[in-house]
Fold these 2 entries.
Entry 1:
Amino acid sequence: MPGLEDLYREIILDHYRSPRNRGELPVPPATRVEGFNPLCGDEIVLYVQVRDGVVEDLKIAGQGCSISQSSASMMSSAVKGKTLDEVQELTRAFKGMMSIHEQSLDGEGETAPIEVDPAVKLGDLEALRGVVKFPVRIKCATLSWNTLAQAIDEATGTD
Amino acid sequence: MTGHDPLDVAAIKKDFPILDREVRGGRLVYLDSANTSQKPRAVLEAMETYYERCNANVHRGTYQIAEEATNALEGARATVARFIGARSPKELVLTKNATEALNLVAKAWGRANLREGDAVVLTELEHHANIVPWHQLHDELGIELRWIPVTADGHVDLTDLDRLVDGAKVVSFAAMSNVLGTLLPVERLVGAAHDAGAIAVIDASQYVPHVGTDVQAWGADFVAFTGHKMLGPTGIGALWGTEAILDATPPFLTGGEMILNVTKEGFTVNELPWKFEAGTPPIAEAVGLGAAADYLTGLGMEAVREHEVSLTAYALRTLTDRFGDDLRIHGPSEPAERGGVLSFEYRDLHPHDLTQVFDQHGVCVRAGHHCAKPLMRVLGAAATARASLYVYNDEADVDALADAIGEAADFFAL
């Protein structure tokens, strides 16, 4: 049985208590996007400033549980200053870590997991690996990442 | 003194098979009955017996078991109608749940009777099921929504009631808040609605399971409730309406069962209540709901209410004594003014994290916005943890909750 320490690693609690990159950015030039977790009422507001294909700055507002808040905080540290390609690789790696393999409809085994480039290093974000053992919390962990993807689409006009 | 026996909770617990199971290596402490209640053996057996002995489609077959199935369905309808004080089983429409019942009111009665600019009055503490269907009518027909405010202590603020209902066509409100447990002044609101020429619609989902209900005494036009919160199965609920208003309401879902005749040119609708029951109904679920009503009647609804008032008082006292200002409990502080629904926040710990720790101790409590986001905004909370009490809960369950809050505080070092 997974214990609480599988979920609430020390680094997660640290980011929860001292969240990085909290605040707002002027819009424009930044893009503002809201994300909601309808299950628990978590709300995240992301301000993302993209210039020359780089996430130049990023701020987070809103409120949520320790998992959604720490995931957002770690994400902000991880993607700030990165190119959009690097952000995409990180997002893919994080989603891969968060995916639970769904049973395929023919009952023959499981669907293929998301393929992740082993060269991509998640760093602190690895601490969120234990969330997979608590399936209802996966949406908390992925909220900020989904919101980031939406913000980048809007900022780069690709949606 | 009160002319009935108090609840024997130890005996009641034995009627609920699920309370025997272990979770997380300990006993199951179920404190989420406002979400869905557990089911006594009597309900499970009634459904099983129905399937094993007389499963057949209703209102069609000429053979014996079809007749028995029809009698089982209509007998359950009569039992539930009696349970809420209806005049006749004709007034009780079986639905999937309270949400479908409220959608029936908005989409069938509302579409036929409301026009652009007509006002519908709601309270700020409504469940989304009593908000979203009206939002849809706002988008579709241009009706206006007005809101009765909620005070900081969780009561509806009636200061401006006369102005709010003036000229309105509908006043629709919960009899008991699913977040705060607040008991609303039902007769007062129904009276104000009728004085203004509006119909009164009551979402009694949280009320019917916990307080003896007399729809005739309420005098409303529609009352919606659901089976699974009153010890019955999922997939069955009901809409009570006066015969007059049900007659004046066009059918909602249409198809088989709800018609008297169908030709290539058109159709004529069936009599009440079948006019609103298109397709094969949830027969076993109705039978289960009838058994649940019988079980509650056996306990006595006065005894149920007394048990919950005293257990709520114990919970408020225990939690306040132990955690003081660290624990913010929303809603009325007077147990007689509320049901056994306790929404709370512990310091700045997010409810989701709180209930995650509870789970490690087998304590089932819901965290979130409880499908009442407008109310959460009034309370200034994004989410709360909500413990809710029922007939099978006792002081030991409340103590387990208090211990679990203590464990969470320790774990997060608050």
Entry 2:
Amino acid sequence: MADYRQMWSDLGMDLDKHDLLCEALPDAFQGVYLSQENRPQGMDFFNFVVSEIHGVRPAELIEHQKAGGKVFGTFCVYVPDEVIFAAGGIATGLCGGSQFWVSGGEKVLPANTCPLIKASVGARLDKTCPFFRIADMYVGETTCDGKKKAWEILSAEVPVHVIDVPQMKREKDIEAFQGEILDFIKIVEDFTGNKITPEALAKSIKLINNKRKALQRLYAARKAAPVPISGKDALLVTQIAFYDDPARCAEMTNILCNELEQRIQAKEGVFPADALRILVTGTPLAIPNWKLHHIVETAGAAVVVEESCTGTRYFEQLVDESGSTIEEQVGALAERYMKTNCACFTPNPGRIDDIIRLADEYKVDGVIDVSLQFCNLYSTESYLVKQALASRDIPIMHIETDYSEQDYEQLRTRVEAFLEMLRK
Amino acid sequence: MHKTNYSWYILFPNHHQGLRLSRELKKQGLKNTIVPTPRAASSCCGMSLMVDSAELEIIREIIAEQGIVIEKIVKLPVKEGWQYRGI
């Protein structure tokens, strides 16, 4: 067996504590993922990434650093990865989807902070996430108040740059975001020592667009009935896309899609053609948060699309590739990123439009609107989402949950009741 | 009488060897799944291959023919009635 303990020790990780995480992973993955029938063979790559999640990719990032490269840890779909890759850097997601890290975050954060933020801060402070140990700089943003304060805490550990994401979408806000991207370019250039040329930025825009196109193709396959891949598996692909090398991720996702398209032609699916189809909307489901999908799919319904940051918001819009100057490219980046509809914006009708459009495109029977506990923005917006969907006779249920198992049975009962209602 | 079902896992000294064997088995149409190594098989984190017990003999031959280095082959009882447990 590969022994990464030396690498983790060199990273200053708490090996004993981290070992508890390693111990829990195989059982949970077996129970949630390997218990599924007829999984696509193309999922094997993603099984591999999970199996080696704190080993192979961290080792690649360390090699990159040894060759003089920088690693940027990011938390949000508003961070333009294109800028980082154009400077020869690597952007990677950071840990934040497990209950395991929450208690570490609660040592310094109020208990009524969302679990994503508590887990992220806990993963860093408890020294149990190699990505947090490796990243030379964290790139934060201003998409919620909890995160804004968390950056201040994390900046005592590692340099943090915060991108100021506007809270409205007027023309002047898009211009302001262009200014933020230009500032970010300067920060990244200074930090890496590499100048970002229009040629390099054009190349990285294509690189990230290709990853988005592969994910778009994956999601397009989920429109079929019977659906050729489970929601759990599709979610895993999106979760891994935040960490993996973008070119490799696109390649492996496209290989998976070849298989899914063959399945569609053969009318082969992982659920019966008449299984209930569910759209999940709301807050991100960071790896390894598979709770809701597991509940829905073990109750016999298929999650066919996620309107979330670990779903369509991550890849739906492409950056215009025609720009040949930094100004044009930054304009295209700002246009693209500001099309993403997060609840941090006011008003945010685009998200409701997206949910309604996706419900139609994926022919869903019902919508589950999930908010991480204490996410004030998404929980509040759920009122507007519910009103809009009710006016179109799209059934919806709202769930507020965290990463723990404590509410698992309660949620399962509620979800089963909702599915039962949809079947009538 | 309750019959225990078993799963078979092949463990490797590193993932390169595991991926080599997985590719080779797929090429030959032999079922295998990359999985996180169960703790009962090893205390080290990383991948192993879950294979079909009926194909173990031919898999052993392929390992020898291709010069793939493995650590061990482990048989573990399949856990029944798993209850959801997050990580």
